[in-house]
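=== Structure Prediction Worksheet ===
Name of assembly: unnamed complex
Input type: mixed (protein and possibly other molecules)
Chain count: two
Listed entries:
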Amino acid sequence: MSQLKRALPLHLAGVASLLIFASAQGADKSSPAFEGKDTLLRPQGYREWVFVGSSLGLRYPKGVEKPSSSQAKSFNNVYIDPAAFRAFSRTGQFPEGTVMVLEILSSDAKAEPGLQGEYEREFIALEAAVKDRRRFDGGWGYFSFDDGEGKLKEKATPFARASCFECHDKKAALDHVFTQFYPVLRAAQPRK
Amino acid sequence: MSQLKRALPLHLAGVASLLIFASAQGADKSSPAFEGKDTLLRPQGYREWVFVGSSLGLRYPKGVEKPSSSQAKSFNNVYIDPAAFRAFSRTGQFPEGTVMVLEILSSDAKAEPGLQGEYEREFIALEAAVKDRRRFDGGWGYFSFDDGEGKLKEKATPFARASCFECHDKKAALDHVFTQFYPVLRAAQPRK
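=== Predicted Assembly ===
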């Protein structure tokens, strides 16, 4: 884009900026879109949002149950929408309207000779969290777009409080976000 | 930004766009910056680039050596610069000037009651690959900014061919990039 800009006569630069701006507006899919009170439309374009961290093998076992080593582990890639990331970088707080997306992928072991490690294989599911005090008791709503067999729903209603909110409320380090697992967010926080 | 835009009288909108455009230009740190023939300055702002995949426990063992379970495993987060990602999404090819960054983090097991899995703890090291036929025999150069003890160098000279290039040349699925490990890139490829 900068080359295009330099190649244009000055009197057209404003028009070019308007066009580019309009296109950037069109590409901004980072605000949460709701239907009715609290049905969230599936976030779009989130793979170009800011990635904040990945984990492998996240599970919520009851009691002392341990995973068996043969149990399939999934990667969890977490993204935050760019506007919320910029606000967080400036203020250290998650603004109203923050959207975080959790994309879940199957894992596999590298088979290439001379390489070891576990990598991300295929997309499995998609979840999201939205900060919105008007819509959600406690300030955050949690959603799953999982429609089974790797398919995704177009929209989702929020989980009951006990499913996600209570754990995020008790165990997440900052405002219901597990920043203890996200070095990218910790590094972006303004220093006091 | 869209609210700002709507609030402005029309004759100021062009000026606002120019300012916003200039600021977006200033924030574009995605092109590789070289010193002399092939010394790469450390990429900046890459945590806001497009994340393409993470892996855990990547190692390059000699022969049949197996990692012990007590061996510390690291997460490897891989990013591609946004301009290269857009070009790749359109053409299915990595354009000249493509920069890919590999950020390496320590891992730890979740300690919160009721949570299991391995997460990313602290940044350890930074590597990069640049596609540039004029500078690098074979088309790609590979760099490490590791300066020991978690510190990073400001610039780096490329690895010898045998260190990275040969493995990328033989085992990477597409043009020296391990797209077999990066579902985000496979999903972005145009369908034929």
